[in-house]
Design brief:
This protein is an alpha+beta fold and about 170 residues long. About 25% of the residues lie in helices and about 35% in strands. It is built from four helices and seven strands; from the N terminus they run αβββαββαββα. Strands 4-5-6-7 form a four-stranded mixed β-sheet. Strands 1-2-3 form a three-stranded antiparallel β-sheet, with no helix packed on it.
Length: about 170
């Protein structure tokens, strides 16, 4: 009954149906609904509805693989490509804004972890990068995490134990 609708009352539009019946078909498959209906005797309607459940969709994480342990390290600290080490620590291990210090036989990395919540995974990847890029006389890696300018947690990794682990 459209007798009180605005177009009928104010505009004088005739909205009386041409037939007293409507019919339609709904066909549902997995993620879509197809509709086809005939209404009021003069209107053909077609529709498509797509749906999904984002809770069921898998998420994809394209991670940089951990480098394999190599045996062709530089001979001296002066042979180390420090820019490459910094880039690899950022790209592979997720440490940004890194500063690298060398004291005797220890390499200390100070940086902000931006990629991994699981810090052991970040430490493993950083140790792999440092193992492949540092000379043999470096036997300890110290990784200091900086957050908002403050250095917090420190992790010490022995080169020999990492080599046995990897």
């Amino acid at each position: 009954d459209y007798s009180t609708d605005y177009p009928v009352v104010q505009a004088g539009v005739d909205m009386s149906p041409h037939t007293p019946w409507n019919f339609g078909v709904l066909y549902r498959i997995g993620m879509a609904d197809f509709r086809l209906s005939y209404e009021r005797g003069d209107t053909l309607v077609a529709g498509l509805t797509l749906n999904t459940n984002f809770n069921d969709m898998p998420s994809f994480w394209r991670d940089t693989p951990t480098p394999e342990v190599e045996s062709n390290q530089p001979e001296e600290l002066s042979d180390v490509d420090w820019e490459r080490v910094t880039e690899d620590l950022d790209k592979i291990a997720g440490y940004q804004n890194t500063r690298i210090y060398v004291d005797d036989n220890t390499v200390t990395v100070v940086g902000e972890q931006k990629k991994y919540r699981d810090r052991t995974e970040a430490h493993e990847k950083a140790a792999a990068v440092l193992h492949n890029e540092m000379p043999d006389d470096i036997d300890t890696y110290a990784i200091n995490e900086r957050s908002r300018g403050l250095v917090g947690e420190q992790t010490i990794i022995s080169k020999e134990k990492y080599r046995d682990f990897a």
